[in-house]
Amino acid sequence: DAGITQSPRHKVTETGTPVTLRCHQTENHRYMYWYRQDPGHGLRLIHYSYGVKDTDKGEVSDGYSVSRSKTEDFLLTLESATSSQTSVYFCAISGGLAGGPVSEQFFGPGTRLTVL
Amino acid sequence: QKEVEQDPGPLSVPEGAIVSLNCTYSNSAFQYFMWYRQYSRKGPELLMYTYSSGNKEDGRFTAQVDKSSKYISLFIRDSQPSDSATYLCAMTPEETSGSRLTFGEGTQLTVNP
């Protein structure tokens, strides 16, 4: 998975609790993304980062916040988890010198989050 | 109305069949088109990449783009059980390293031995 790890890989939590998901890359790619994948919707962008401390909202950002204090780490926080945030979350990176299309995104293995 | 429409399937075919996967889109600004393959419980990986209209072939895979109809296809010849996966189309208006991709829902394909 192109030097991308996500932690935790699985998490079960209760409604109202805060949750933080971590994405770590060893590829020194500039851009990092958080997506959620749900049946009937496919991959939807939550937030993305175009550099350290530079982030912006995607199409489904309500209820989520992000932070990027280092090139290699991008954190996704659910401030107060709800059942509608039960999903599979994928981190992706782009902007390296991999030799393929410059717009290519490389995905992590995913985190399965269940909010009861 | 979604910007990219893709039939989610599931699609089940016998080994050796020719598979056709398709996406339609509404945003005429899309210029760069991709197909990602996602195995069960894994992240998506880029399979094919094309620019504008035309065909691109890579082994058993052919990607086709028809911008006039806003329609893209992925053909798999001599399909194998190892092709069983979800195939997602993706597209973007610009080819830059921070391009935001718009994905289709994905089509789940099973190739039966």
CATH topology of chain B: Immunoglobulin-like
- Uncertain regions spanning at least 5 consecutive residues of chain B: none
Q: First CA to last CA of chain A: what distance?
A: 30 Å
Q: How many distinct folded domains of chain B?
A: 1
From the helix content, strand content and strand pairing of chain A, which structural class follows? mainly beta
How would you describe the shape of chain A?
A: globular
Named CATH architecture of chain A: Sandwich
Uncertain runs of chain A: none
**Strand segment count of chain A:** 11
Give, in order, the helices and strands of chain A.
EEEEEEEEEEE
**Structural class by helix and strand composition of chain B:** mainly beta
Task: Specify the CATH homologous superfamily of chain A.
Answer: Immunoglobulins
The overall pLDDT of chain A, averaged over residues, is: 93
Range of helix content of chain B: under 10%
List the helices and strands and how they pair.
The complex is a heterodimer of chains A (116) and B (113).
Chain A: E1 4-7, E2 10-13, E3 19-25, E4 31-38, E5 42-51, E6 54-57, E7 64-70, E8 73-78, E9 87-94, E10 106-107, E11 111-115
Parallel strand pairs in A: 2-11
Antiparallel strand pairs in A: 1-3, 3-8, 4-5, 4-9, 5-6, 7-8, 9-10, 9-11
Chain B: E1 4-6, E2 11-14, E3 19-25, E4 32-38, E5 45-51, E6 54-58, E7 61-66, E8 71-76, E9 85-92, E10 102-103, E11 107-112
Structure, described:
The complex is a heterodimer of chains A (116) and B (113). Chain A has 116 residues and is mainly beta. Chain A is built from no helices and eleven strands. In chain A, strands 2, 4, 5, 6, 9, 10 and 11 form a seven-stranded mixed beta sheet that branches. The mean pLDDT of chain A is 93. Chain A is globular, with a radius of gyration of 13 Å. Chain A has a single domain (4-115), classed as Immunoglobulins (Immunoglobulin-like, Sandwich). The model of chain B has no long low-confidence stretch (mean pLDDT 94). Chain B has one domain (4-107): Immunoglobulins (Immunoglobulin-like), CATH 2.60.40.10. In chain B, the strands form two sheets. In chain B, strands 2, 4, 5, 9, 10 and 11 form a six-stranded mixed beta sheet that branches. The N and C termini of chain B lie far apart (37 Å). Chain B contains no helices and eleven strands. Chain B has 113 residues and is mainly β. Chain B is 0% helix and 54% strand. The A-B interface holds A 1, 4, 30-31, 39-45, 48, 50, 58, 90, 92, 94-96, 100-110 and B 6, 8, 32, 34, 41-46, 49, 88, 92, 94-101, 103-106.
